Amino acid sequence: MSKTSIGVAVIGAGMAGKAHAAGYRSATAVFGEALPPVRLVSVADAYEPLAAATARRFGFERFDTSWQAIAAADDIDVVSVVVANRLHRQIVEALLAAGKNVLCEKPLSDTLDDARAMVAAADAAGETVARIGLTFLRSPGIAFLGQLVRSGRLGRLINFDGAYWTDYACDPNGPISWRFKGPAGSGALADVGSHLTYIAELFGGPVATVRGGTLHTAYTSRPTPLGMVVGHEHAAVSDRREPVENDDVAGFFVDFAAGGTGSLQVSRVAQGHPNTLKFEVFCERGSASFDFRHPGQVRLRLPDDDVASSGYRTVILGPEHPYWRGGLAMDAPGVGVGQNDGFVFQARAFLDEVAGVAESESLPRNADFAAGLHNMALLGAATESALAGGSAVDVPLLAAAH
User: Which one-letter DSSP state was computed for residue 368?
Assistant: First the structure.
């Protein structure tokens, strides 16, 4: 990049948009000082009060009320797109055409056709960087276990068992929003299942076949809000209700191309689980488990355990694990890490790539749009399986995230 500084903008000022804004603000403080100056320029949102408040809160120079203003701005080089999935294609294509570097939230879009078009736009953009945010790959515990399994120390993977349970839609009188609209598979499966699937492929490699798919809508209608709905927050509602078009619960089995199987379940109506991402990986000579309610630790059953005392052990994460040393303000063992830190690491990796900073083992690049397309193809296969009564559906082996 030839510029002496990098101008940053975020389109979307809701829950995840705030996480991106905060990530950029903190990104210059982690992993050394190789970046050129980063300017926090604008936060854009159609709801002006939210755009203004988020820009002010995270130290951006200004706010805008349209994504078009971001695309046209000469002082912006890097843009995070954090809006409703159905809007991704139009915004991303325009940003890439304007020469902006784009970090798009997952899933890449809400249809495979739009996702393919976005991959084509990214390929046509030349040296412009287009990446997708797969934030949980930046969790130190998940990254560490991924390294451990892929190194072969635990032996061949036999089974991945994972769940992502949330409860943000438990109240049947919570307001309708864009999250509840769209085709089959665009609900809980796309929202949190997109995370669980790329985590499963971190351990097992690309999925070849999906089977046993199920989709379930627990609450078939919701009231319309009287005002703006931000993220998962509740709002005052009217007496009028609209139909819920997509899934509250989803589950399916997978067969990995390299061998091994997996079972995955997701929900947005799991009472008592505001954000429970957990999985267990079973291999020939050992096992590993992770629960994001305790993100500063992992559990391992290693092949060199003494038979008399073998079993799961708890490993407290620290400077010897991914993203920890230099990535946290206090990077001592046991200080804890959370989901917000993943957005900081993600933003730093993106800014490094835009600035031409050499990739390092401690801070790998974000996934490209082709990986995002593969993730959507996998979710699409799970949806197709569900609509076909659980039949087996092959997944095109595109570029999986890693």
Answer: E
* 270 CB-near residues (< 8 Å, 6+ apart): 165, 166, 167, 170, 276
Q: What is the mean pLDDT of the chain?
A: 94
Helix (H, G, I), strand (E, B) or coil at 84: coil
pLDDT tops 70 at residue 3: no
pTM above 0.70, yes or no: yes
- Please give the backbone phi and psi of residue 159, each rounded to the nearest 5 degrees, phi first: -155, 140
Are residues 128 and 156 in contact, defined by beta-carbon separation less than 8 angstroms? no
Distance CA 309, CA 137 (A): 32
> What distance in Å separates the CA atoms of residue 208 and residue 372, rounded to the nearest whole number?
16
Mark 53-80 as b/e (b = at least 16 C-beta within 10 Å).
bbbeebebebbbeebebbbebeebbbbb
- Please name each of the domains of the chain with its CATH number: 6-136 (3.40.50.720), 137-337+367-394 (3.30.360.10)
Share of the chain above pLDDT 90, in %: 89
Sign (positive or negative) of CA dihedral 72, 78, 84, 86: positive
Cβ neighbours of 39 (radius 10 Å): 18
Averaged pLDDT, 308-317: 90
Q: Where are the beta strands (DSSP E) in 70-166?
A: 78-81, 101-105, 130-133, 157-165
3-state DSSP assignment of residue 315? strand
Q: Are strands 157-165 and 367-368 parallel, antiparallel or unpaired?
A: unpaired
Give the pLDDT confidence of 343-401 residue by residue, as tens digits.
Answer: 999 999 999 999 999 998 889 999 999 999 999 999 999 999 999 999 999 998 765 55
